[in-house]
Amino acid sequence: MNQDWEDRMAAAWATFDDYDEDHAGEFRAVIDALVAELPNDSAVGPFQQAGAWDSTGHSDKAIALYREALARGLDGSQRRQATIQLSSSLRNIGQAEEGVKLLTQELTAQSDEWDDAVRACLALCLSSLGRDREGLSLVLGALAPHLPRYQRSMANYARLLVEPEL
């Protein structure tokens, strides 16, 4: 994998919205062709293929590919993306508990640009389990630092949603 390959993969993803539901297989074929250029043991290949299946409405087919990418040692930002996307896919097929487990572990990972996405997806998984107050707390807590005002108030409200009443 080199910069040219990464640029071509990014360009392929930039065309995603050009494919309607009836042509989703064509989009996946574009991704598969790029993945075919990678070494057979690449962790990036199944990650990209999982994303293509997931983005075209097939979370069920994406899960095994996300797991494969992670098992092969996907690292850095892509590891975190794969965990978020795997958790979302698990939620989509009724396995939100596993998504909560995976994303709860991510809350302690080194902070990066994916922190808010971890919290947003975790909030959805929690909501799917009927734990809406916890989910709302996470979302408000993630949103608070981005507000032009009320950061402290929103952070406190987020905390109070899950603190036990005294």
Question: Can you describe this structure?
Answer:
The model has no long low-confidence stretch (mean pLDDT 96). The longest helix is centred in the middle third of the chain and has 17 residues. Helices cover 69% and strands 0% of the residues. The chain contains 9 helices and no strands. With 166 residues, the chain is an all-alpha fold. The chain has a domain of 93 residues: Serine Threonine Protein Phosphatase 5, Tetratricopeptide repeat. Helix 5 runs parallel beside helix 7. It is elongated and about 60 Å long. The N and C termini lie far apart (56 Å).
Keywords:
Serine Threonine Protein Phosphatase 5, Tetratricopeptide repeat, 9 helices, 0% strand, mainly alpha, 166 residues, single chain
SSE layout and pairings?
Blueprint: H1 3-14, H2 24-35, H3 44-55, H4 59-71, H5 76-92, H6 96-106, H7 115-128, H8 132-143, H9 151-162
Helix pairs in contact: 1-2, 2-3, 3-4, 3-5, 4-5, 5-6, 5-7, 6-7, 7-8, 8-9
Would you tell me which CATH topology of the domain at 3-95 applies?
A: Serine Threonine Protein Phosphatase 5, Tetratricopeptide repeat
* Radius of gyration from CA coordinates: 18 Å
SSE order in H/E notation? HHHHHHHHH
- Report on the biggest sheet: none
Total number of β-strand segments? Answer: 0
Shape: elongated
Residue stretches low in confidence (pLDDT < 50, at least 5 long) are none
Please tell me the CATH architecture of the domain at 3-95 by its name. Answer: Alpha Horseshoe
Instruction: Note the total helix count.
Output: 9
- Computed structural class: mainly alpha
Class of the domain at 3-95, according to the CATH hierarchy? Mainly Alpha
Mean pLDDT: 96
